[in-house]
Design brief:
There is one protein chain. With about 180 residues, the chain is mainly alpha-helical. The protein has eight helices and no strands. The protein folds into two domains: about 70 residues, no CATH class; about 100 residues, no CATH class.
Length: about 180
């Protein structure tokens, strides 16, 4: 909860990847709050009040996942909404921002290749979903200390660069919007 709040303020991409990891942690604990408490929540060095808030946060996410039938795979609607918002910004900047268009053109071969690999599953993911799936898979591979090829590392750098540019442009637009309302 604390980490998620911080990441949501600072970096939408890190927030989304963190939330996907939380979903997987909840699944790995079999949606059992005792296991989640023992394996996840107990590791936070916080006072009892904050620990209770974290417990409630995980319990709410767990219940949402069960209500949305995400026992095996998939992402919470709240996380899909974040991804959809990023996709809307992505499409908007593709129409209006030459710098972002250039970053996208560099990343497009990676996105297209990943889309082809995922098409075997019948998935028709958006550009943003494909990019985040690639980053999440990479994060998991690194956590498992699995080696990544040089070409994979380069592909990840290209996609990360595009996402970094997207997030910076979103932040600028939001700041401009805030200035106009003041």
């Amino acid at each position: 909860m604390i980490v998620a709040q911080q990441k949501k303020k600072e970096n939408t991409a890190e927030y989304l990847l963190y939330m996907w990891q939380v979903e997987d942690l909840i699944r790995a604990c079999g949606f059992d709050m005792q296991q989640i408490d023992a394996n996840v929540i107990s590791r936070f060095a916080v006072d009892d009040d904050v620990r209770r808030q974290i417990y409630e946060w995980y319990d709410n996410l767990r219940l949402m996942m069960l209500n949305e039938h995400l026992e095996k795979t998939g992402h919470l609607q709240i996380n899909k909404n974040v991804l959809n918002e990023l996709e809307e910004w992505h499409l908007s900047f593709l129409q209006s921002d030459w710098e972002y268009q250039a970053k996208y053109q560099r990343a497009l071969p990676v996105i297209a290749e990943f889309r082809t690999k995922n098409a075997a599953d019948g998935a028709q993911d958006s550009d943003m979903e494909l990019c985040f799936n690639l980053l999440y898979m990479t994060m998991l591979m690194r956590m498992q200390q699995k080696p990544l090829s040089a070409s994979t590392e380069e592909a990840i750098k290209t996609v990360s660069d595009m996402l970094r540019t997207l997030l910076l442009k979103i932040k600028r637009k939001e700041e401009e919007s805030m200035e106009k309302t003041e």
